[in-house]
Amino acid sequence: MNFDGVEKIAAAILYEGYILYPYRPTAIKNRQRWNFGTLYPRVYAEAQRPQEPFRLVAECLVTADANASLDLRISFLQLVPQRQSKSAAHPEEVQTLSDPSLAWDEAVERTSEHSDLRLNNLIANPLTRTLQMDGTGLPEGRGGNSASNLQLELTIGAETLQDGACKLRIELRNTSPLPSGAEAKRDEALPLSFVSAHLLLGITGGEFVSLLDPGDIYRESAAACRNAGVFPVLAGEEPDRSMMLCSPIILYDYPQIAPESEGDFFDGTEMDEMLTLRVLTLTDGEKQEMRNGDPRARKILERTETLTAESMLKAHGVIRGLREIRRDVS
Fold first, then answer.
1. What residues contact residue 211 under an 8 Å CB cut-off, 6+ apart?
2. Which pLDDT score, from 0 to 100, does residue 4 have?
3. First and final CA of the chain: distance in angstroms?
4. Measured distance CA(283)–CA(289) in Å, rounded
5. What does the pLDDT read at residue 243?
6. Are the C-beta atoms of residues 196 and 248 closer than 8 Å to each other?
7. Are strands 84-86 and 151-160 parallel, antiparallel or unpaired?
8. How many whole angstroms separate alpha carbon 287 and alpha carbon 294?
């Protein structure tokens, strides 16, 4: 399944809250990460009071023919320590931080893809896989033991319902081991956590059923779906029903990125005009900290400083559509 049509909205979910205004590593909100959809290692999560999440469960409905197949993409961020930074003026030179406490946890995208899963096989026998993720894609010298110890357990099952729909159940668990076990602190657990974890589902030979507007035929079955940590919504271009996004953030069917947006601010409300103006009013010292911090923060600064008047006007607001409001004058 080609998920290119939903990559933008999936990326917005992935980086929701990753780094927030004023986009500096020294800002309190950016030093203590509380991203949506974080799945901690199970041994750590179950030891907390109250318990932290270590798994997500997605249940949704499909109508499909006998040869239908499912594609699944698991996506999340892994945080790795950025103990050294590069100079904006001389990016080839690596600088050692004068204050090690200002080390920044940089996000690396991790994915796991599972293709051509036959629906009939899932109905007959649920699929369970234990996945180990190596250090491929992690910044050189910063993976450490966390890369080799990252462990996922995936279970996918399906059942045929009386109304003719097929109910999918997908469970993802973080079973990564921790050297300190149940005594582990959050700083030890976070690099082994799945941050902003979500799923993309694609069906070939069938269609997904909206859980928000299932219609009368499937209303009872849709109401019986139980989701934990994510909620499935139709994705892509309406009225296509071949893709579903299981998001840790509550969305409507067919979520879209506003075409007027020049880029991501890592804020789901995407208040582009306000955030652009706020970034432009930062002091020179604050802007320098943005440049020397996370590379994505540096891109925000570079983009906002080169915005044209036309781009700023686009961000001011737009009317998507109008409808007539009729009053009963009788």
1. 60, 61, 222, 225, 231, 232, 233
2. 85
3. 55
4. 10
5. 97
6. yes
7. unpaired
8. 12
Q: Which residues pair with 203 in a beta bridge?
A: 70
Phi-psi region at 288: left, alpha or beta (left = phi > 0; alpha = psi -120 to 50):
alpha
Of the candidates 51, 19, 47, 16, which has an alpha carbon nearest to the alpha carbon of residue 32? 19
Say how far apart CA 46 and CA 325 lie, in whole Å. 53
All residue ranges of the chain with pLDDT < 50 are: 85, 94, 101
Cα(255)–Cα(238) distance, integer angstroms? 10
25's tokens:
């590593």
pLDDT of residue 167: 98
Residue 21 identity (one-letter amino acid): Y
- Cβ atoms of 185 and 208 within 8 Å: the answer is no
User: Whole-angstrom Cα distance, residue 317 to residue 23?
Assistant: 24
Beta bridge partners of 73: 113, 200
